Every structure is written in C-alpha cells, then in structure tokens.
Amino acid sequence: MPHPEQPTRRVRSLIVTGLALGALGAASLTSTAHAQAPAATPTAESTPTAEATPATAAMPATSAVPAPAERVAALKESLQRDQATLKQYEWIETTVMSMKGEEKSRKQMRCYHGADGKLQKLAVGDQPEPDKKKRGIRGKVIEGKKEEISDYMTKAAEAIKKYIPPDPARLQAVQAAGRASTHMLEPGKRARIDFKDYSVPGDVLGVEIDLTSNKILGLAVTTLVEGGKEPVNFEAKFASLQDGTGYPQKTMLDAKEMGVTINVENSGYKKLAAQ
Q: Could you give phi then psi for residue 133, rounded to 5 degrees?
C-alpha cells in the first residue's frame, strides 16, 4: 500500500515539470518572434556615419568623369566659330578696378580687330589725370603702396586675358593630356568641364556649356597672379548677340589677398563699317 505522501510528491513533480516546460516554450516563442520581427530603426545616435551621409554615387550632378574628346572638340569648334564672327564687330570694354570696395579707376576702350586679325583697343574719352604726389617720407610710403597695388591690378587684368576667351587649341591639348574632367550640372542640359593646368601649373579653368549647342554659358577660374601669394578666383558670364554669336559679357575678379576687385564688361556691339 503506497505511502499517503507519495501522490502529493508526484503532483508537485508534475507541476514543477510543467512549469519548466512552459518556461522553455515561452523562451522559444520569444526567440522566434524576435527573429521574425523587422529590425528596429536605429536612433540618430547609433546610426553609422556612412549610412547617414548619402553616397557619392547617388549624386551624379557633382560626380566628375573624364571629358570626352568629342565634347571638347565640339566646344573647340563652337569657340572658333564665335571668335571668327566677332572679328566683324566692334564694342566697348569697360574696366573698373576697386580696392576694399572703393573704386580706384575706370577705363573704357573701343575694341575691334584690325586687318591683320589682331585685337585693337583705343581709349574712349579723356583719361583721368594722375594723383598729385605727396612729399616727405609718408608721401613716399603712400606712393610705394599705390605703385604696388597698381602693379598688382595691372597683372591681375593681364591674367584675365590668358583665359578669356579660352584658346580652343589649348583646351584640346589639356583634354588630350588627360587633365580635363566633366561635372554634370543639369543632365542633358548643362555641364562644366574643368581644365587643370590650363595656363600655369595648379590653375583650373572651368567651362560651363550648354549640352544641346556646345556654347559657353560661363567660366570660372582659379589661378595665381604674378606677385601674389594666394590664388585668385574670377568668373565670366557669357551672352549671345542677335545672330547667336557668343561673347564674354561680364567678368569679375576677386583678389582677397590684396582687397582688389576688377570688373570688366563688354557692351555696345555693332558691325564694323566697311573699310
């Protein structure tokens, strides 16, 4: 005959076993639920930098690829055509030089190409008289500084001429040397071709073009001016005459190192009188 406490022990054993099995089942279900549930979105603090920053490949507008030879050749032809047509015109070139926001000089020149094809410039109107020199040591210091600034302005103006208008043959040579790259600004409409080491080592000539016509829309240049230590930047906006000929309408140079700005504007285009 079994002992009276045996059933009670068996019941307790069954209860304990059931609880243990139940706990294991719950743990299994919890593990399965975690495996099937989508991963939680990481918080801003836990998001890796690589995931927070868009990939370069996702921004084709700023990606650079080697400039196709065909594109540069088409740009070259467009430039040559415009420059040939401009020889039939004369225009007024206005150059304003300022230092720290104050206008220092303004010159107007009548521009045209002579029979030999070379660009000619004739002063328009009276030229301003030079400032009277101050005497003494202070006067010499002031005059020395003026000459330094004036010399820098002259060289900066000469630097602009190296890039405007661009030399078609040089553009093609830079491309052939593998130093030209294309940046798409507006797919199918606008792009910028950067020509590195275009005129001097380290400079960059950026040419913005209309992809449908291969005409220049603008220029952006980073270069060094003789006598300066810091690179200068200047840009030019192009426009078209009634016959579609492109020309540099406005050029703006900003030399922060010397506090000098130069603005050149071409206007008043008209056909040359028959000679």
A: -75, 140
167/214 Cα distance (integer angstroms): 15
Rounded CA-CA distance 141/84 in Å is 47
- pLDDT of the residue at 135: 54
With CA atoms as reference, report the closest residue to 171 among 155, 148, 194: 194
Q: Which residues have C-beta within 8 Å of that of residue 257, sequence separation ≥ 6?
A: 228, 229, 230, 232
pLDDT at 274: 67
The pTM assigned to this predicted structure is 0.68
pLDDT given for residue 55 in this prediction: 32
DSSP letters, the chain, are ---TTHHHHHHHHHHHHHHHHHHHHHHHHHHHHHHHSPPPPPPTTTS-HHHHSPPGGG-TTT-EEEPPHHHHHHHHHHHHHHHHHHTTEEEEEEEEEEETTEEEEEEEEEEEE-TTS-EEEEE-SPPPPPPPPPPHHHHHHHHHHHHHHHHHHHHHHHHHHTTSS--HHHHHHHHHTT-EEEEEEETTTEEEEEEETSSSTT-EEEEEEETTT--EEEEEEEE--TT-SS-EEEEEEEEE-TT--EEEEEEEEEETTTTEEEEEEEEEEEEPPP-
Q: What is the pLDDT of residue 144?
A: 54
CA distance 252 to 264: 7
| DSSP β-bridge partners for residue 103 | 98
Predicted confidence at residue 159, as pLDDT, reads: 86
What is the amino acid identity at position 58? A
Residues in the chain where the model's pLDDT stays below 70? 1-63, 126-146, 274-275
Sorted by where each starts, the structural domains of the chain and their CATH numbers stand as 63-271 (2.50.20)
Q: What is the pLDDT of residue 184?
A: 93
